[in-house]
Amino acid sequence: MNRRSGRHLGLDVRAEINVTSLVDVAFTLLIIFMITAPILQGGVEIEVPRAPAAPLQASEGIVITIDREGGLYLDDVPVTMDEFDAAVVQVIRRRDAEMVYVKGDANVSYGAVLRVIGKLKEADIEAVSLVAEPEERGRGG
Question: The domain at 50-134 falls in which architecture?
Answer without folding.
Answer: 2-Layer Sandwich (3.30)
